[in-house]
Amino acid sequence: MKKPNFKHNLILAIDTSCDETSVAVMHGDKVLSNLYSSQIELHKQYGGVVPSIAKLAHQERIDSILEESLKRSKITLGEIDAVAVTVGPGLAIALEIGILKAKEVAENYHKPLVAVNHMEGHLLSGLVLRNSKNEIKKETINFPALGVLVSGKHTELVMVEDFGKYKIIGETLDDACGECFDKCGRLLGLGYPAGPAITKFAKENRENIKLEIVHKNTSVLVKGTNISSKREYLLPISMANSGDLNFSYSGLKTAFRDLVAKLPKVDAEITKDLCVVFEHAALLQIINKLEKAIKIHNPKEIWLGGGVIANARLRTLVRKSAKGIKVRFPNSKKLTGDNAAMIGIAGNYQLNQNRGIFTNSSGFKKIDREPNLTF
Ligand code: KG4
Ligand code: ZN
After folding, report:
1. Are 119 and 303 in contact (CB under 8 A)?
2. Running along the chain, 375 residues long, what does each successive block of 10 average in pLDDT?
3. CA distances from 374 to 96, 120, 158, 167, 190 (A)
4. What H or E segment, with its residue span, contains residue 23?
5. What is the CB-side half-sphere exposure of residue 164 using CA atoms within 13 A?
6. Are 117 and 156 in contact (CB under 8 A)?
7. Nearest CA to ligand 1 atom 13
8. The 20-27 sheet, strands edge to edge
9. Cα dihedral sign for 292, 214, 279, 172?
10. Angle between helices 92-109 and 51-73 (to 10 degrees)
11. Helix pair angle (268-297, 177-187), 10° resolution
């Protein structure tokens, strides 16, 4: 059990790792403002993020988002204690825009610069508190925690011995879970990113589908049967017998493509059926590995983070598997997807531990070790 000795710094945080230009102002773990400008409209015609377009959009938007974020937080740059910025993983030319801006502010206002790993941000996103007048009593955090990170680029299980002490115990060998949602949804014409649409259709139609687990040779499959049409769909729960904690989503993607290709037509009803069965197969892979990880590593808490955590069924299934272990997850949708508040809280923990900090006294001389990029 650990009572955190937590210093509440005022932090300006920036994330430009992918297709959201986001700037937040945090007071320790509390959000004062967390704004982002989404580029989905610019990228959706290409079915994915185009790095050069992302870079230009970040460049065009960063100043106004920064200004608005400060305005909403009622904090001035002079009052900030530090600037935190995502340094990776992400699109290099997109990250660069945020890093340059963060350096500029830190230099101009003589503040330390904190280099944050984007995945550490997702990992700590469930600890971000809403801004409210009432000071929330600082909760005790019990270690070890098990991080379950499910985003568009990553699918990871991380053991957390303490802040900054992370060990990846399972990760995807190929596609990420969110990426699989997006690619399969695209086949159904659900736009980009397709994760939210699949989740919505699956929720609306779940009660019309009977879901079963079937075993075929060494494979474990989800069988979904439409209760009225009796139509059946089979999709694999990959890596069910892999014996480790790793994930794989390329097999589900291929099986989904083959299933769709074999259907004589894909109308609105069949699209919804497919969403239910796909969602179940994709999420059960995570749940299988989570249950295995709980048995092996005996975590005291489970921390959820990443865009796919917006899927309420995933959160429900995790809570069921947790069997009473405390589950923390982001308290708003804004905190599940990419956002700067999660970078701010990670930056604050780093400041508390003097890790990944660059001082500006003589041109950002490194005063600590390299930023933790072990994710
Ligand atoms: O964390 P994130 O915003 O970006 C990365 O760091 O990758 O995650 C984006 C991913 C996308 O694949 C998107 O389709 C998925 O999160 N996503 C969802 C939902 N909302 C976003 N997937 C399932 N259900 C949702 N409601
Ligand atoms: Zn992310």
Report:
1. no
2. 71 94 96 91 84 88 96 96 94 93 93 95 94 62 97 96 95 97 96 96 98 95 98 97 96 98 95 98 98 98 98 98 97 95 97 82 44 42
3. 20, 10, 11, 8, 34
4. strand 20-27
5. 14
6. no
7. 195
8. 30-38, 20-27, 10-15, 82-88, 113-117, 357-359, 365-366
9. positive
10. 30
11. 170
Mutate to test the pocket of ligand 1, among 155, 201, 283, 308 (most ligand atoms within 8 A of CB): 308
DSSP H helices in the chain:
40-43, 51-73, 92-109, 118-124, 177-187, 195-205, 250-262, 268-297, 312-322, 340-353
Per the DSSP assignment, residues forming a β-bridge with 147 are 158, 303
> What strands lie across the sheet with 165-171, from one edge to the other?
165-171, 155-162, 145-150, 301-305, 326-328
How far is 1 from 300, CA to CA, in rounded Å?
9
Cβ–Cβ < 8 Å for 23, 35: yes
* Beta carbon of 90 within 6 Å of any ligand 1 atom: no
In degrees rounded to 5, what are phi and psi of residue 132? -145, 160
Answer positive or negative: Cα dihedral of 356, 165, 345, 196.
Answer: positive
User: How many residues in the chain?
Assistant: 375
Residue 305: name the closest of 328, 286, 279 by CA.
328
Say if residue 371 is preceded by a cis peptide, omega within 30 of 0.
Answer: no
Closest residue by CA, ligand 1 atom 14 = 195
Quick one: which of 6, 3, 19, 32 has its CA closest to 344? 32
Residue 311 Cβ contacting ligand 1 at under 6 Å? yes
Both structure tokens of 321: 């598997």
Q: Is 156 left (phi over 0), alpha (psi -120 to 50) or beta?
A: beta
